[in-house]
Amino acid sequence: MNKIPRPLLVQAGTVLLLLALWEVLGESRVLFQALVPGVLEILGAAWIQVATGFLWPHFLVTLYEASAGFLAAAFSAIPTGILLGANPFLRKVLEPPILYFAATPKIILYPIFLMVLGVHFESKMAMAAVSAFFPLVINATMGAASVSGIFIKVARSVGASGFQIVTRVYLPSMLLPIVAGMRLGLGAAIVGAILGELKVSNAGLGFIIIQAFNHFRIADMYASILLTFVFAAVVNLLMTLILGKIRRFSPQRGF
Fold it and tell me: Residue 196 belongs to a domain with what CATH number?
């Protein structure tokens, strides 16, 4: 019989401890009782949201906005990263401002997106795209810059075109950093979409969280937050599994 891994036991114990502390805090009346509903009350509210179908239209809206924004970011960030990684001069010129913008809270751009794109899906997609762009472009740049110059010289010596060098030299060599950037970028896209929904929206996970808060349905608010966390955790787990599969068969295991 296989033993349960120790890290998993520690994680499970930590979760149980936090749940116990939450329950004790709620029962202690140190805070206003309605602010800390019981764990069972929150789980019950979450079950109602799932079982009644209330959650699913909002979940699909957030998934659509985050996915569209992520794809837009990927199709722009990966070619940009290859260009910067392959050209040291451009990298020296553009890498510093990219790093500066990466550290800037993206929510400050949301008023611009609202003015240009309106209050519907497009502004949330833009928030998701700009949030996902920077992890993707930074990882792609690092990956392209680390490609061995010998591979490129060999490809050119046999007459490979620029497109062939990109598709047959750069992309295979960059696979690990690209997928690692996708893992970070997808999480950032979800955060960006939900931030937009919290501000101005009429649908989405962020919308139902802020609506529950506005109407002081605190258990429903925590339930929506919990389900959003589960959604993000599942996405991250899938990306982690994909990255693990790629790392297992990649020659760049030490990356």
Answer: 1.10.3720.10
